[in-house]
Target: Small ribosomal subunit biogenesis GTPase RsgA
Amino acid sequence: MVGDGDRQELTDDEGADLATRRREYDEEDVRVRPGKSSRPRTRTRPRHADARDGFVIAVDRGRYTCVLTGAVPDDPTVTAMRARELGRKSVVVGDRVALVGDTSGAAGALARIVRIAPRHSVLRRTAEDDASTAEGRLERVVVANADQLVIVSALADPPPRTGFIDRCLVAAYDADIEPLLCLTKADLAGPEKVLDYYTELELPYVLIRPDSPLDALRSLLAGRVSVLVGHSGVGKSTLVNRLVPEADRAVGTVSAIGRGRHTSTSAVALRLPALPGTPDDPGWIVDTPGVRSFGLAHVSAESLLHGFPDLVEATVDCPANCPHTADEADCALDAWVAQGRADPRRLASYRRLLASRAGDLEPRGEAEPRGHP
Ligand SMILES: Nc1nc2c(ncn2[C@@H]2O[C@H](COP(=O)(O)OP(=O)(O)OP(=O)(O)O)[C@@H](O)[C@H]2O)c(=O)[nH]1
Ligand SMILES: [Zn+2]
Model:
């Protein structure tokens, strides 16, 4: 499950383990590295001044599929590997990178990623909300440089889970990217209950039904990189295929490059088709088939609160270092809710997330449901 693209941003004590794997990469790099360049370098000339800029759209076992900046949809993608000089830096979908070597995109061609541009956002998750095990602390970068997190939730079959949505909201605010609630199966149920729960947030949302045009959603996706997350069965794949009818083909291309197998559960960026009648950038969506939950063990209690802007204000009246838990008698959140200034279900949800972060057992079925028939 933990692909190379997922294995990122580890805590210090996990770094040692990785040194071994990293050495493998280095040796791999050495093999393909051309002989030492005799080209003179001056102080002012940056290394790899001839590098081409690209955008990472898929990661599969040490191979990175990139789209060159300025490439048109039919241009071939470039397959690349990490250059040794990247050191410990991870490369994930969404990264803007500098590429050298064979960037032709021809069959069998291999380029090298020599630089990663600073990221303007980093969407992270912890594998499991369990701080007591190494796996639980494994923090992974899901996508870099995303602008928007599209939280896909069905209005029925399966019913919406506000616990999951709340979790995604925390991840979005933590990553500093904008959330968008995408409510599917609007033909089966109305959105009132869900929207009522989020009234205080003024959360942007779109309703999706099988026969409705996707214009509203497309305009919200235009010009941005949007990450789609959702539980199994909510209609995310259906939506991706409607948004990017060639998605299957695109995924097929990626798998061909990725050593012929398409078992990847990591994120894949898909270019949205051009918007009719406008030259505007239609944007990219990032599908995340492997992300079924957003473990938040890496998010501090205070940052967790940022996912609950309807509650934040209350905490100015909390005692210093208030843990905001239900057993904290002086926590101002209880009075806030009692006064009707926020929905008690939101406070309960916040406290459930707090508890799950602390490694307490939470009723799994409530905030973090697994499979659904
Ligand atoms: N009524 C209704 N059914 C839908 C809608 N969107 C998707 N479905 C159905 O819901 C089921 C699940 O859809 P998928 O697109 O496979 O859901 P998913 O979220 O990708 O789930 P996984 O395939 O498990 O990843 C399918 O039977 C779809 O036909 C919708 O808007 N309305
Ligand atoms: Zn408090």
Notes: Residues 122-287 form a domain with the Rossmann fold fold (CATH 3.40.50.300).
